[in-house]
């Protein structure tokens, strides 16, 4: 039986604890803010296969895999990874969204057992996990994590080389930069942009991916479109004006009830239900890809 330790029980750590307990793994969690899990809010946390440890050492000392899910702060991550690695002989996977394994690995005692496993929010729902080995990661550690995730119905995708932000967040950031530039230029409203993606682009991407869509449309066409449009796309290094304005006013989206849209728990629950339906539709695995070989 694989035992999993989760350090950091915030948004992602709690979702990961729920995911792994639902798959009958024994899960131990630790958070420096001990009130991380309120059982009435997270009824699954009362399951017999989940426990909260009193210390980080207790959480990780004899687990097979530890997932580090503390705040995205380099100093905090370095300190926590260093402490984890001095108490476990198992594999350590960081859920960082941005830091490359080679940046974090020097804090870990045995870097060959360390890699990035980047889950997505909500982790119970999104099958994708980007697997990013660092230059020192042993192939056996990568294979063990990939097998573990596949065995529990997740969809690990192995990157060939590390880079900041990995692949998914770079793609999301590229789309968001252009979307925000279009909003700031008054060309389309946020709702029109989201509508264009939902009713046209996203289903095509789900079935074929952006590169597959180019293949289907004809590479000669996309060669011309790229030559014409690439020089006109936003290449700003600044977050958009409206994003900055909303953020400075404390309008942070769903968590504060207002962002580009108004939010309440009911409409957000509907959005999550829609996402769940779409994920259940599933997509065919891509043939020949390392994640399905
Ligand atoms: N939220 C997302 O959408 C998302 C998606 C993918 C990856 N991630 C990554 O997952 C990680 C966690 O993100 P989150 O959104 O869950 O953050 P969060 O702020 O919700 O949770 C972080 C938790 O870490 C705990 N923590 C901080 N210092 C600690 C320490 N020294 N020891 C133990 N616990 C400590 C905090 O108390 C908090 O509960 C980050 O690296 C983030 O980039 C987040």
Overall description:
- With 293 residues, the protein is an alpha/beta fold.
- 43% of the residues lie in helices and 13% in strands.
- The protein is built from ten helices and eight strands.
- The longest helix is centred in the last third of the chain and has 28 residues, at 190-217.
- The model has no long low-confidence stretch (mean pLDDT 93).
Short key terms for the protein model shown above:
globular, eight-stranded mixed β-sheet, alpha/beta, 10 helices, binds nicotinamide-adenine-dinucleotide, 43% helix, 293 residues, single chain
What is the rounded Rg? 21 Å
Total beta strands:
8
Largest β sheet strand count, sense and barrel closure: 8 strands, mixed
Ligands in the structure? nicotinamide-adenine-dinucleotide
Poorly predicted regions are none
> How widely separated are the two ends?
25 Å
Strand content: 5-15%
Q: State the order of secondary-structure elements, H for helix, E for strand.
A: EHEEHEHEHEEHEHHHHH
């Amino acid at each position: 039986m694989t035992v999993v330790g989760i350090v950091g029980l915030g948004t992602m750590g709690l979702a990961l604890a729920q995911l792994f307990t639902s798959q009958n793994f024994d899960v131990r969690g630790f958070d420096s803010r001990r009130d991380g899990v309120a059982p009435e809010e997270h009824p699954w946390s009362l399951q017999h296969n989940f426990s909260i440890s009193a210390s980080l050492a207790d959480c990780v000392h004899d687990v097979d895999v530890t997932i580090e899910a503390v705040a995205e702060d380099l100093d905090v991550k370095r300190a926590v990874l260093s402490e984890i690695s001095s108490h476990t002989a198992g594999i350590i996977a960081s859920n960082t969204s941005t830091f490359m394994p080679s940046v974090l690995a020097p804090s870990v005692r045995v870097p060959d057992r360390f890699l990035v496993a980047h889950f997505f929010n909500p982790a119970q729902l999104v099958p994708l996990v980007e697997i990013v080995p660092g230059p020192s990661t042993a192939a056996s550690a990568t294979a063990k994590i990939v097998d573990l995730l596949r065995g529990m119905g997740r969809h690990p995708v192995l990157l060939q080389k590390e880079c900041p932000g990995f692949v998914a967040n770079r793609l999301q950031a590229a789309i968001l930069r252009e979307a925000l530039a279009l909003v700031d230029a008054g060309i389309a409203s946020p709702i029109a942009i989201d509508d264009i993606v939902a009713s046209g682009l996203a289903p095509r991407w789900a079935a074929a991916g952006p590169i597959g869509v180019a293949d289907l449309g004809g590479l000669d066409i996309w060669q011309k479109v790229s030559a014409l449009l690439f020089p006109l796309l936003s290449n700003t290094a600044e977050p958009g004006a409206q994003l900055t304005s909303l953020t400075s006013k404390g309008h942070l989206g769903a968590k504060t009830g207002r962002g580009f849209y108004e939010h309440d728990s009911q409409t957000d629950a509907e959005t999550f239900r829609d996402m769940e339906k779409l994920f259940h539709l599933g997509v065919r695995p891509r043939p020949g890809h390392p994640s399905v070989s």
